[in-house]
């Protein structure tokens, strides 16, 4: 069975900059999974530190309200990997999931770490590149011209272990909805 991970689509990230296109693609994929009655799992990054923007009690750390209603399940994590010291692996096993689709934020941390961790655990992994985003940019890494999302997608694709698709490729290969 397939499952969709929606990683760190939280107010603190979504409100950081214009992620309109990423959110549109994420919502389309969520709706496609819902139409197939496949599980949609939201992952929420949390911290116990009141000074951290992901402080679990803060409004900023909450799941982005317009998408919250779609969550079949929510997992909380404290590291970039959605698997490390969480209930995700047991949940996926109980749901008989063997393929994970990854969307969300931040591409070069939580999405990439989760994709690699999922592969290491034996899952078939598909990252939908343009349904991920990041608050960081080329200046963050002092690498002029760096397109973080494209770089991560290319590195994962070249690994020949993780499938990397854009939304159109996802729709053509896996999508079941007739209107996107």
UniProtKB/TrEMBL annotation:
Q: One Pfam family for this entry, by name?
A: Isochorismatase
Q: What GO molecular functions are on record for this protein? A: hydrolase activity
What keywords tag this UniProt record?
A: Hydrolase
Top-level taxon in the UniProt lineage = Bacteria
What CDD domains is this protein classified in?
Answer: cysteine_hydrolases
Tell me which Gene3D superfamilies the record gives: Isochorismatase-like
The record ties this protein, via InterPro entries, to: Isochorismatase-like_dom, Isochorismatase-like_hydrls, Isochorismatase-like_sf
Please state every residue range assigned to the domain named Isochorismatase-like: 3-139
* Family statement: Belongs to the isochorismatase family.
Name the UniProt record assigns to this protein: Nicotinamidase-related amidase
Kindly list the organism's lineage. Bacteria, Bacillati, Bacillota, Bacilli, Bacillales
């Amino acid at each position: 069975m397939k499952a969709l991970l929606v990683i760190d689509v939280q107010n603190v990230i979504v409100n950081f900059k214009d992620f309109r296109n990423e959110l549109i693609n994420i919502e389309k994929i969520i709706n496609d999974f819902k139409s197939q009655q496949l599980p949609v799992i939201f992952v929420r990054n949390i911290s116990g530190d009141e000074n951290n923007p992901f402080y679990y009690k803060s409004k900023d750390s909450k799941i982005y309200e317009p998408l919250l209603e779609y969550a079949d399940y929510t997992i909380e994590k404290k590291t970039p990997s959605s698997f490390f010291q969480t209930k995700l692996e047991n949940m996926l096993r109980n749901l008989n999931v063997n393929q994970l689709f990854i969307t969300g934020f931040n591409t070069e941390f939580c999405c990439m770490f989760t994709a690699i961790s999922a592969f290491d655990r034996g899952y078939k992994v598909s990252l939908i590149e343009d349904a991920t985003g990041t608050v960081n940019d080329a200046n963050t890494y002092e690498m002029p011209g760096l397109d973080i999302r494209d770089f991560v997608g290319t590195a994962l694709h070249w690994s020949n272990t993780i499938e990397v698709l854009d939304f159109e490729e996802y729709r053509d290969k896996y999508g079941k909805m007739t209107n996107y």
